[in-house]
Amino acid sequence: MKSGTADVDVVVVGAGFGGLAMLYRLRESGYSIQGVEVGDGVGGTWFWNRYPGARVDVQSVEYSLSLSREVQDEWTWTELMAPQEELERYVNFVADRLDLRRNIKFNTQVTAMTWDEASATWLVETAQGDQWRARFVVTAVGCLSAPLEPAIEGLHSFAGVSLYTNRFPKEGFDFTGKRTAIIGTGSSGVQATPVVARQAEHLYVFQRSAAYTMPAGNRPWRPGEFEALRADYDAIRAVQFASPLGAARFGAVAIGDFRTPPPKILETPREERFARLERDGWLAATAFAWADAAIDIEANRAAQELYAEMIRREVKDPETAAALVPHYPMGCKRPIIDIGYFETFNRDNVTLVDLRKGAIRRVTPEGIETEQGFFPLDVIVYATGFDAMTGALNRIDIRGRDGALMRETWLAEGPRTYLGLMVAGFPNLFTITGPGSPSVLTNMVSSIEQHSQWIVDCLDHLREARRRTIEAEPQAQEDWVAHVATLAEGGVRVHESCTSWYLGANVPGKVRVYMPYAGGLNVYRDRCDEIAKAGYAGFTLA
Ligand code: N01
Question: How far does the centroid of ligand 1 lie from the alpha carbon of residue 30, in Å?
Fold first, then answer.
C-alpha cells in the first residue's frame, strides 16, 4: 500500500482512547503507522485532566474498549464509574497489552499538515522538528483538549499557585492549609469542589453560571457483580452500541428510566410534579424526565422549579441555595453528575462567590479582586473549560488542496465536515469524533470505536479498489452540515439564552454553531454504514 514517497501509510495524531484504537486497528489490518502524542504518556483526557475528583460519568464497563477480547477479559474495574487514576492505568494497560507504545512518538506536538497533490501524501510536521510523509492522516485530538485560558486581567500576576484542571500537575497538589479559589462550575469545577473542600483551609467557589448537577450514584462493586458483568460483555456491548448515547446508562441510571414514562410537565398539575419529585428525587428534576422540558422553554422553567426545590433541600443557607439555581435552560449544557457537590456548601470552610452579584475585576499578586470585595488567596484553580470540538484542530496549520487553510473556513463559518469524518478539500484526512458527528453527546469510547472501525474499513476498501485518495464532495458536506443544524433546531440546546460550549458560546468571538450531531449514535452509525455500502456515497475516490 505504501506509495513511493510516503514514509508511512498512516500518521495518527493523539494517543488517547481514539489514537490507541485507531493505531491498533490499522496495525491489525497491515498498515504501517506512526502515532504522535504531545504528552509524555497515553490517555488523552485522562492524562491531562488529573484534578482531584476527576471521574468518568459513564459506567466503566461501557466506557472501555471492546476491540480486543484480551483487553476486555483481563481488565478489572473496581467501581461503577472509574476515577481518573484508574482510567489512566487502564489506558496504559491497553497500550502495553496491545504493544502500541513502539508506534508512538511522545512529547511531540504536531504543528502542521500539508497536502501534496503530486505525491498524494500529507507532510506532517512537529514543533520538535519531525517530518513524516503519510498517505493518510487520522486526527484523534479529542473534543475537549484545547484548554481555554480565561480573559481575566492580571491572571499571570498571581504570586500564589495557579493550577488548571485540564493541565493538573502529575504529582498532584496538597491543598492543606491553603486559602483556595476554584473558578468555574462546569463538570471539572463541580467534581473538584468537594475533594478540594475537604483539604483546603478555606475554599471559595467562584461561580458565573450555576451548574445542573445531580448525585452520580457511584459505588464500589457488590461481591461478584463485576465478574458477572464481565461474563456478560457480549450482551452489554450489543445494548450499548444499539443505544443513541452509546451507553445503556448515564451515571448510575439506566437511560430507559429517564424515558418511561415521559409525561409533559405542563400537562401535569403542580402537586403531581412535586409528588414525582418525592418519588424519583433528582431524576424528576432533569430535562430527560419530562417530554416537553427539552423543547418548550416554559416546560423547561417548570422543571427548573423542581430542580431549585432539590437544591433547597440540600443546602442549608437559603441565600447560597438560591445562588446555586441556574438561570439558563436545563439541558442546554452538558448535564453533570457529582459526588457531594451541594452538601459541600454546608461546610464552614466553603464560600460560594456568586459572580452575578459582582464580577471578577482582576487577579492581583495576593488574590482575586471582585466587584463584591477582595479575596486573599494562596491557590487559584482554573476550571474554565476548553475551546471545544474545533480548538485542537484549529491550532494545527492544516493545509489541503491549493494550500487552503482549514481553520480559515472553520473560524469564519464554523466547522464544515461530511459525517464529522472528512472535510472537502482535505483528501485522505480523517477526523475521529470530529464536529458533525455524535461524539460529545455520546459515550466517547463508543463513538471512537465506531469511527476507528469505519476508517479502517474505508482504507481497506481503497486498498482493494486500488484507489489512492478519498475526499468528501462539497455538496455532500453542505447537505450534512445542514442536516446537523436541522437536528439541533427548536430545542433548548440552541435557545438564545444557552451559552454552551456545544455552540462555541464559551469562546469569545467563536461562531455560534451547534457542532455535534444530535440524531443519536445508532442512527448515525447506520447512516455511515449505508454510505460505505453504497460505494462511499458523497465521497470522491480516485
Ligand atoms: O468546562 P466548562 P469543564 N470567569 O466549559 C466558567 C467534559 N468533562 O472543564 O458557564 C468566571 O463546562 C464557566 O462559566 P460560564 C464535559 O463534557 C467531563 O468543567 O461560561 N468563570 C463554567 O462554569 C464537560 O462539559 C467530565 O458562565 C468562568 C466553567 O468555567 C466538558 O468536559 C469531567 C470564566 C467552565 O465549564 C467541559 O467541562 C470534566 C471567567 N472568566 C469535564 N471563564 C466527566 O466525565 C469560564 N468560566 C464527569
Answer: 41
- Is the C-beta atom of 385 inside 6 A of ligand 1? yes
| C-alpha span between 119 and 121 (Å, rounded) | 5
Q: Is 185 in the pocket of ligand 1 (CB under 6 A)?
A: yes
Residue at grid coordinates 461562531: 511
Residue 438, preceding bond cis, omega within 30 degrees?
no
Measured in Å, residue 184 CA sits from the centre of ligand 1 at 6
Contacts of 6 (CB under 8 A, 6+ apart): 119, 121, 133, 134, 135
**Which residue puts its alpha carbon closest to atom 37 of ligand 1?**
385
DSSP 8-state class, residue 200: B
> Which class for 475: exposed (0-12), middle (13-18), buried (19 or more C-beta within 10 A)?
exposed
For residues 524 and 427, the answer to whether their CB atoms sit within 8 Å is no
CB of residue 208 inside a 6 A radius of ligand 1:
yes
Mutate to test the pocket of ligand 1, among 48, 188, 445, 502 (most ligand atoms within 8 A of CB): 188
* Ligand 1 centroid to residue 384 C-alpha, Å: 5
Pick the residue whose CA is nearest to atom 29 on ligand 1: 184
Q: Divide the 542 residues of the chain into consecutive groups of 10 and give the mean pLDDT of each group.
A: 70 98 98 98 98 96 96 96 98 98 98 97 97 98 96 97 98 98 98 98 98 95 94 92 89 65 92 95 91 94 97 98 96 95 98 98 98 98 98 98 97 98 98 98 98 98 98 98 96 93 97 97 98 98 98
Q: Count CB neighbours of 18 within 10 A.
A: 30
Cα(383) to centroid(ligand 1), Å: 6
3-state DSSP helix/strand/coil percent for the chain, to nearest 5? 40, 20, 40
Please indicate, yes or no, whether the overall pTM of this predicted structure exceeds 0.90: yes
Q: Could you tell me which residues are beta bridge partners of residue 362?
A: 369
